[in-house]
Design brief:
The complex is a heterodimer of chains A (273) and B (279). The relative contact order of chain A is 0.11. The termini of chain A are far apart. Chain A has two domains: 47 residues; 198 residues, MetI-like (MetI-like fold), CATH 1.10.3720. The longest helix of chain A has 45 residues. By secondary structure, chain A is mainly α. Chain B has 279 residues and is mainly alpha-helical. Helix content of chain B is 78%, strand content 0%. Chain B has 13 helices and no strands. Chain B is globular, with a radius of gyration of 27 Å. The termini of chain B are far apart. The chains are: A mainly alpha (273), B mainly alpha (279). Chains A and B meet through helix 1, helix 3, helix 4, helix 5 and helix 6 of A and helix 2, helix 4, helix 6, helix 7 and helix 8 of B.
Chain lengths: 273, 279
């Protein structure tokens, strides 16, 4: 008798919990859908000038302009493609260079001062990631002028956040035993760093850098839109001269470069890990 | 005694080294090749190395000189605040549409549960890769030229961006599932759609929710600049002030972008940990 009573009691508690959870889910979806409806109202109904788009035929006509590919642009593509590739590579290496001190400050177990410099390191990581690469490029174009240099610097600054975050986490997760062993045999600070910490973090860091390099190729392809060089500049020129076939050609070059980068980074990461 | 002293000089003198011979050749050869390529790149791109290394100091000078003090009155203007709401709306809509379109593409492009390895797998892979390969700003320019200026173009561009971003993470997640339930469903004669719905979805539901929230976060970051190329939102104000050389206003806008992105990152982190706790 007593057993069945407790059984029924626990059953009713469970149904109560389930009802509460269902109510919560219902509330969540209600808020979600209301918010989505508000967004649709704001963007698609109020803000869009449908008559200017010109119906289905107008859209097809606009897309059709892109399909007649301008193969004549082919010889002009080679140099900007190489430039884009080089900008991404140099930018990634410079980004690694910048992220070393940031990772050192932002790793809790090796930071020189936990109260002041650790938050500074963390803040630099967030700052680097939260500013979009286009904005970084704008800032650097105004600082150092037009050309490939602001593109490289923008890519480097944007890469710092991700690389230093992963590096700092890797440093925080190292095994302390090799470090102690090297200290015990009389190694100095540099030897501890080089033989104790570096071999433990380097596969992770290298894989991250290769991954970031792969993303940076995409980023360097648009740096030209705001005044740095590469394929973006060619894209911008073709767009401004209304040569839509040329635009398609540039996009094809970008696609090819990125597939190439993805293949290279796939094999490199396999070799590292 | 005499034997011992005669033995000791026969011990080979070995200096310890981290790399042994063939490995050291490979690693140093790769390093050398990378260095040569980088040096040649600097030469090819015609870059002043001293200027490159001194650029950070110069950046501080430029920011202090031109962008400080930021014109904070400008970003509390109602028009600008409305544009922040526009950006939020665009990122939300783009995120939803992108995530919903990414789910079938991820299903097609996951090698272990794809409905058809010869037809659907390459189709899904190509869809995800081409969305990912083209940067969101290029998508924006293309959509603006087709759909005209405004938030519709921005939403479409963000949708493409989110398909690429979420599709890759989703398909990686699907490829890591436990194949037991899938095999069981297949053995019981389920069709690919039923396999996906009853064997795959329950395993990846929580991970997908986390990825979807993260996608919104990244989409918001991208949404702050789609306006720069005609997509509407905060970026439009950025472009206008950059072109008018109103540097103090530009500084204020960049500050507001950083603040909004930080808030978005905080919200997404909180939501993701809430989802993980509710699991």
């Amino acid at each position: 008798m007593a057993v069945s009573d407790t059984h029924i009691a626990s059953l009713s508690v469970q149904t109560e919990l389930r009802r509460k959870r269902q109510f919560k889910m219902l509330l969540f979806w209600g808020v979600f859908l209301a918010f989505a409806a508000w967004c649709v109202q704001g963007t698609i109904i109020e803000d869009t000038d449908w008559s200017r788009i010109g119906g289905r035929s107008g859209v097809w006509a606009s897309i059709g302009r892109y399909i007649q590919i301008d193969w004549g642009l082919l010889p002009e593509l080679l140099v900007p493609t190489i430039e884009t590739f080089m900008m991404a590579s140099v930018g990634t290496v410079l980004g690694c260079f910048f992220s070393l001190p940031v990772a050192w400050l932002g790793a809790a177990n090796v930071t020189p001062s936990k109260t002041i410099l650790y938050p500074v390191g963390r803040f630099l990581m967030v700052l680097s990631r939260s500013v979009h690469e286009i904005v970084w490029a704008l800032i650097f174009v105004s600082a150092v002028g037009l050309g490939a240099l602001p593109g490289i610097l923008a890519i480097a600054m944007r890469s710092v956040g991700f690389i230093s975050k992963i590096t700092a986490e890797a440093i925080e997760n190292i095994d302390a035993k090799p470090v102690e062993a090297i200290r015990a045999t009389g190694g100095n600070e540099f030897q501890v760093m080089y033989y104790g910490i570096l071999p433990q973090i380097y596969p992770v860091v290298l894989a991250t850098v290769i991954f970031e390099w792969d993303i940076n190729i995409r980023r360097s392809a648009v740096m030209g839109l705001v005044g740095a060089g590469g394929l973006g500049l060619l894209f911008f020129r073709q767009m401004n001269s209304f040569n839509y076939g040329g635009v398609t050609m540039v996009i094809l070059a970008i696609l090819l470069l990125i597939v190439l980068g993805e293949v290279i980074s796939h094999y490199l990461r396999k070799a590292v890990i | 005694m005499s034997e011992q002293t005669s033995l000791s000089p026969q011990k080979p003198l070995r200096t310890w080294s981290r790399y042994s011979f063939p490995e050291s050749l490979w690693s140093f050869g790769t390093l050398l090749a990378v260095l040569v390529f980088l040096t040649y790149s600097l030469y090819f791109l015609n870059i002043d190395v001293l200027m490159m290394l001194g650029a950070l100091g110069k950046l501080v000078g430029v920011v202090a000189d031109r962008f400080y003090p930021p014109d904070l009155a400008y970003i509390t203007d109602p028009g600008y605040l409305a544009s922040i709401l526009d950006t939020l709306q665009m990122s939300f809509l783009g995120g939803i549409a992108g995530v919903f379109l990414a789910i079938p593409l991820a299903w097609f492009s996951a090698w272990n549960v794809t409905p058809n390895r010869r037809l659907f797998f390459p189709l899904g892979r190509f869809g995800v890769i081409s969305c990912r390969a083209i940067h969101e700003t290029i998508w924006t320019i293309l959509f603006v030229s087709v759909l005209g200026f405004g938030m519709l173009a921005g939403v479409s561009a963000l949708t493409m961006f989110c398909i690429g971003f979420a599709g890759k993470l989703f398909s990686d997640e699907i490829e890591a599932i436990d194949m037991g339930p899938v095999d069981a469903m297949r053995a019981a004669g389920a069709n690919p759609f039923q396999v996906f719905l009853y064997a795959v979805v329950p395993q990846v539901r929580v991970a997908f929710t986390g990825i979807a929230i993260y996608t919104w976060d990244v989409a918001f970051r991208a949404a702050t600049v789609v306006g720069f190329f005609g997509g509407g939102g905060m970026g439009w104000y950025l472009k206008r002030n950059v072109q008018q050389l109103e540097n103090l206003r530009v500084g204020a806008i960049i500050l507001s972008i950083i603040a909004m992105v930080l808030i978005a990152e905080f919200i997404s982190g909180w939501l993701r940990s809430a989802v993980n706790r509710a699991k």
